[in-house]
From TrEMBL:
Keywords: Ribonucleoprotein, Ribosomal protein. This is Large ribosomal subunit protein bL31B. Belongs to the bacterial ribosomal protein bL31 family. Type B subfamily. Transmembrane segments: none annotated. Part of the 50S ribosomal subunit. It comes from the Bacteria.
Amino acid sequence: MRNGIHPVSRPVVFRDRAAGFQLLTRSTVESQRTVEWEDGTTYPVVDVEISSASHPFYTGTSRVVDTAGRVERFQRRYGRTTADRH
C-alpha cells in the first residue's frame, strides 16, 4: 500500500436510538460526539436512523406486497388486456 493515501480506520460505535442498539466496529467516519462503551472505554459515536435491530426486513415485520393483484387491478381499471400488448 502507498503511504498517505488511505484514511485512518478507528473503533467507532454506531447507535440506533430507536431500537436501543449499539455496535462497536472499525470505521473511517469521524465524529465529535463520544459514548462510553461497556468496558469503560470512550469511543466516537455515530447515530443512525435505522439498523438491523429496527429495519422491518430484519425484524420480521415486513409486509409482502401482492404485485400481481395490483397489476391485474390496474389493467381492469384502465381496460387494458393482454391481447392489447401484442
